[in-house]
Amino acid sequence: MPDQILPTNRPASAIVAGLDSPAPGQKVYDRAIHLSGWVHAPGLSPASCEVRAHLNDFCVAQTRSLSYRADICQKLGLGREARTGFKMLAKTPAPATEPHEVTLRITASWDGRAPQTLIEQAVQIEPTLLSQRHHGEVVYPENETLLHRENIYGSGPPLRDPGLEAADLILGYLPEHSSVVDVGCGAGAYGPALIAAGHDWLGLESSEHCCQILQERQLPYRRVDLASQCLPCRTGEWECGICIEVLEHVRKPEAFLAEIARITRRRVIFSVPNMEVLPYMYGWGVVPWHLLEADHKNFFTRASLRRLLRPYFRQVEVFSFGEHPLRMREGIPVYVHFCAIADK
After folding, report:
1. Fewest CB atoms within 10 A around its CB: which of 28, 32, 79, 156?
2. Residue 344 exposure: Cα atoms within 13 Å on the Cβ side
């Protein structure tokens, strides 16, 4: 049953309260509703106070712990011993399936008496749809399991579809109708578009799972034996190569690059995560999503990528791509990948 909101015997004018978050009409996620505010009742002990949050009269959070709020104590002329602040983390009784408006009601009671309604306002519930989000099946609010590194840092499924910006770069920088070896091709994300554009494409892949996908997709590939020191191609067999988001996973990148240089004659296009963005994103307290990838072994700046490639290629040019949707504090975009054009 929903909690019943009853009037208190104490005059409402004697109690003052405010809600900092959420604001009236604000959008909130159904699974993570941050509540912050304050309440002061002259003559009543904060230690006996219980604050509750209700959505459409269902109690969704409660607290008996009030904190010192310097701003409120100054505003009300209270001493340092006064406890007025409250914080709660709530979620809707059931996951939402579509956006909708609810009534948020904050109540407080003292010494077990009937609760007093402090604030009532509308908020907009936004469905989180955790089951459709990365890690949503792991870090959902009801999960009581103590999570470990292997639960968070992992490897996602191979991509079947190309990144649009990366695909455009590859098509734009490859010579027309060239033979192209895709080193570490995964599930062959870039194969169909290159084949459709008239390139002679072949994927190289070590993962048995990815090779099964390549076979199902009827894409040409060769299996790489990780125990071998050589890629399964003849010297100079391919005019060009691509190596997209692979170098960061390779334990011995120098030997790996020597092999790529051996089997190609003209140009190789590389992409790797751009680690230079970390200082810029620190101001927001965030890092790029790809840092949750457990298998990353190498991390690049533009200079370190260029230096790694130069012994194997005559000319190396590095630029950034992949604009992050989050603007920095100064309103400036950052780009989370490097692309290297390496010519023989």
Report:
1. 79
2. 16
Instruction: Judge if 336 and 220 occupy the same domain.
Output: yes
Among candidate residues 206, 183, 201, the one with its CA nearest the CA of residue 256: 183
Q: What is the 3-state secondary structure (H, E, C) of 220-266?
A: CEEECCCCCCCCCCCCCCEEEEEEECCHHHCCCHHHHHHHHHHHEEE
Separation between Cα atoms, residue 155 and residue 168, nearest integer Å: 25
Query: Which CATH number goes with the domain that contains 195?
Result: 3.40.50.150
d(C-alpha 318, C-alpha 165), whole Å: 16
Residues 241/185, Cβ–Cβ less than 8 Å = no
How far apart are alpha carbons 244 and 188 in whole angstroms?
A: 11
Residues 169 and 122 in one domain: no
Nearest Cα to Cα of residue 245 among 155, 152, 118, 311: 155
Strands 221-223 and 200-205, sheet pairing? parallel
pLDDT digits (tens, 9 = 90+) for 279-337: 999 989 998 888 888 899 999 999 999 999 999 999 999 999 999 999 998 899 999 99
189 and 123 in a common domain: no
56: containing domain: 12-132
Task: Say how many CA atoms lie within 13 Å of 206 toward its Cβ.
Answer: 12
Query: What residues contact residue 48 under an 8 Å CB cut-off, 6+ apart?
Result: 110, 111, 112
pTM here is: 0.79
> For the chain, what is the domain count?
2
The answer on 183 and 316 residing in a single domain is yes
d(CA 339, CA 337): 7
The answer to whether position 149 is within a domain reads: no
By residue count, the chain amounts to 344
> Which amino acid is residue 71, in one-letter code?
D
Q: Domain check: are 111 and 254 in the same one? A: no
